[in-house]
Amino acid sequence: MAESSNRPVLVVDFGAQYAQLIARRVREAQVYSEVVPHTTPVAELVERDPAAIVLSGGPSSVYEPGAPQVDPKLFDLDIPVFGICYGFQAMAGALGGTVEHTGTREYGRTELGVQHSGGLLHEELPANHPVWMSHGDCVTKAPEGFTVTATSEGAPVAAFEHPERRFAGVQYHPEVGHSPHGQEVLRRFLHEIAGIRPQWTTSSIVDDQVARIREQVGDGKAICGLSGGVDSAVAAALVQRAIGDRLTCVFVDHGLLRAGERAQVERDFVAATGVKLVTVDARERFLDALRGVTDPEQKRKIIGREFIRVFEQAERDLKAEGDYQFLVQGTLYPDVVESGGGAGAANIKSHHNVGGLPEDLQFKLVEPLRSLFKDEVRRVGTELGLPETIVQRQPFPGPGLGIRIIGEVTQERLDILRKADAIAREELTTAGLDRQIWQCPVVLLADVRSVGVQGDGRTYGHPVVLRPVSSEDAMTADWTRLPYDVLERISTRITNEVAEVNRVVLDVTSKPPGTIEWE
Ligand code: XMP
């Protein structure tokens, strides 16, 4: 998978979820990177013609039986290598240094002492600065020819380098935010020690992908389903840039969207890209299919099934008009890695996205975001002129408001939830909190009625739940401590403006144990 003319930095994944984050940080230093499993033979690594190799951290102790090892041949290839945490120890071991089980462990924030003016990696950084450690074993003697450039209380060799051979490593985790100089250290390895030119920029990504799409599609025609989300919008915009009106976008309105979302696609996205768009109004059909259904998993299945049927019909209609051979999908790099592109990474997300490839319609896939991380996708979207409301859109589940109504989904309930949700979003945006929260589902407890007093009489209205969460990746999350005055405004406005709601409650559960969505 040669995704770019940029030679990749290959991040060897020793497990434990660090590799993807390292790959992202490498790209932040404007160097293209990919994750590969630690089982990849050296010959295969060489075939990829890497600009450098980064050995990631991992959960094992180098002493454990079956612990992944580094093939010493890797160090005879004149390829720059950077070892991190476990990768640092494995590198030290393979090159003849000493790794020991000293009994001193370091977890979390640790003071790093810079030695020998820091060498190339830590040059000009403060003589003492905090880093994030997580290790039981440590390197007690660096391999021959290496300079030790940092130590910590529990790690006599906390960093080493051999600039002539273009090798370096650190015991700590430079990729995490708790190592405030970590990005600089990684950057120095890539630019100063490995000598890689920073060329992976947003405009280079766009040029590169546009050229690839043109090459793949030739003078063919393509279809792209738009969900209203960032990924499909950016994928479509890239393909539109490449092949113009030989792309047709399809947007299915399943009636479970939030206020204003259809207009955002039909008006704003079309205005920004000039894309050809077909909207399918399937609101009735989804309501019919969901009638009487209260079980969340069943709702998800029905919505997924109906969506595929409607989308397939739209594809058939288009195919009847012209020869569409290509289908555009907004698959991202983490999906590729997590679904086996990198065997070392634990399979954490079993994602339930609406959509899918119909079996009887032979399409070739165009996946212009296959090598990109989410933050890169957003930057590409901005570069292509998409509005901020689309590019910075928070995640919204495919089954939409259907899984935020606890109980049966009806038109009336959708209208209630849409109003409450719009108010919450508007107030959060006005308060400037969009960047702090990952998303804030508003959930309608449609089967619950609580007593209220409004005006002169008692009411039996529904409660809505606010579920503001902060997260990096939706796998874990914490509830966002929203300012009381913002909560107050949201609550007052919802209970005043949405007659059927007489109570607003706040969900203060982290994930785990609670999921982000209620259903
Ligand atoms: P949970 O509720 O599992 O959600 O903590 C994690 C993230 O996934 C989104 N989500 C979904 N997205 N289809 C989707 O496309 C779904 O069925 C679905 N369920 C949850 C959720 O909004 C959050 O961002």
Automatic annotation (TrEMBL):
<keyword id="KW-0547">Nucleotide-binding</keyword>
<dbReference type="InterPro" id="IPR029062">
    <property type="entry name" value="Class_I_gatase-like"/>
</dbReference>
<comment type="pathway">
    <text>Purine metabolism; GMP biosynthesis; GMP from XMP (L-Gln route): step 1/1.</text>
</comment>
<comment type="function">
    <text>Catalyzes the synthesis of GMP from XMP.</text>
</comment>
<protein>
    <recommendedName>
        <fullName>GMP synthase [glutamine-hydrolyzing]</fullName>
        <ecNumber>6.3.5.2</ecNumber>
    </recommendedName>
</protein>
<keyword id="KW-0658">Purine biosynthesis</keyword>
<dbReference type="GO" id="GO:0003921">
    <property type="term" value="F:GMP synthase activity"/>
</dbReference>
<keyword id="KW-0332">GMP biosynthesis</keyword>
<dbReference type="InterPro" id="IPR022310">
    <property type="entry name" value="NAD/GMP_synthase"/>
</dbReference>
<dbReference type="Pfam" id="PF02540">
    <property type="entry name" value="NAD_synthase"/>
</dbReference>
<dbReference type="InterPro" id="IPR022955">
    <property type="entry name" value="GMP_synthase"/>
</dbReference>
<comment type="subunit">
    <text>Homodimer.</text>
</comment>
<keyword id="KW-0436">Ligase</keyword>
<feature type="domain" description="GMPS ATP-PPase">
    <location>
        <begin position="200"/>
        <end position="393"/>
    </location>
</feature>
<feature type="active site">
    <location>
        <position position="175"/>
    </location>
</feature>
<dbReference type="InterPro" id="IPR001674">
    <property type="entry name" value="GMP_synth_C"/>
</dbReference>
<dbReference type="Pfam" id="PF00958">
    <property type="entry name" value="GMP_synt_C"/>
</dbReference>
<dbReference type="GO" id="GO:0005829">
    <property type="term" value="C:cytosol"/>
</dbReference>
<dbReference type="GO" id="GO:0005524">
    <property type="term" value="F:ATP binding"/>
</dbReference>
<feature type="active site" description="Nucleophile">
    <location>
        <position position="85"/>
    </location>
</feature>
<dbReference type="InterPro" id="IPR017926">
    <property type="entry name" value="GATASE"/>
</dbReference>
<dbReference type="Pfam" id="PF00117">
    <property type="entry name" value="GATase"/>
</dbReference>
<dbReference type="InterPro" id="IPR014729">
    <property type="entry name" value="Rossmann-like_a/b/a_fold"/>
</dbReference>
<feature type="active site">
    <location>
        <position position="173"/>
    </location>
</feature>
<dbReference type="InterPro" id="IPR004739">
    <property type="entry name" value="GMP_synth_GATase"/>
</dbReference>
<dbReference type="InterPro" id="IPR025777">
    <property type="entry name" value="GMPS_ATP_PPase_dom"/>
</dbReference>
<feature type="binding site">
    <location>
        <begin position="227"/>
        <end position="233"/>
    </location>
    <ligand>
        <name>ATP</name>
    </ligand>
</feature>
<keyword id="KW-0315">Glutamine amidotransferase</keyword>
<keyword id="KW-0067">ATP-binding</keyword>
